[in-house]
Amino acid sequence: MSHFSIRSHSDMLVNNLSESFNKMILEARGKPILIMMETVRTKIMLLIVKKKEEADKWKGTLCSQHVVDLVQNSCSCRNWDLTGIPCLLALSVIHVKNEFPDTYEQTWHTKQTQIQIFSNFVSPVRGPKQWASLSNMLPILPPPLRRPPGRPTKVKRKEPDEPQTTERLSKRGVEMRCSKCKIIGHNKRSCKGEVGQNIPVKRHQVGV
């Protein structure tokens, strides 16, 4: 913390803002440079106007206010809900009521919960030095390494519920046509017919 710069006035050390911006301009990244710049400019312009209108609706000199619920251990800033630790807003309310913040901690932060989590243990086993040696037993070798033909795949194998990439067009529903016999239903690798059998030849018209 001693080497952090105070110029940005922010405690965020992640690139979530950059990822959100890249998501916003995703549709414009594949367009020509002029169209891309105009699309990005329009999106930023609309975003600035939207944030300005939201700021004009704030009441008072500070930013939007939050609601603290000590009964439900919740705050509208969502920090208390996500971490289970009272946020600064909740601590202010607790201090006004002359109560202790420890009473509003979630149960998973207590000592009793941590002891219960680590109550089970893994029993130790004998190491290689304590194994019984068998002089008549042949050494167990690893199985032979078999490399499949072709180059190794670099694309990640996706799960059935994982969304597919949108960079390539899907071939689902596309009818396969053989380039050898021009019949639908197979390709030229599994084709058993003759080249262009019973297929009328189309004449190309050449413009003058």
Automatic annotation (TrEMBL):
Region annotation (Disordered) ranges: 142-171
SMART domains reported in the protein's UniProt record: ZnF_PMZ
GO molecular function annotations of the record: zinc ion binding
Keywords carried by this UniProt record: Metal-binding, Zinc, Zinc-finger
Family matches, as Pfam families: SWIM
Chain intervals with Pro residues compositional bias: 142-151
Top-level division of the source organism's lineage: Eukaryota
Protein name: Zinc finger PMZ-type domain-containing protein
Taxon lineage: Eukaryota, Viridiplantae, Streptophyta, Embryophyta, Tracheophyta
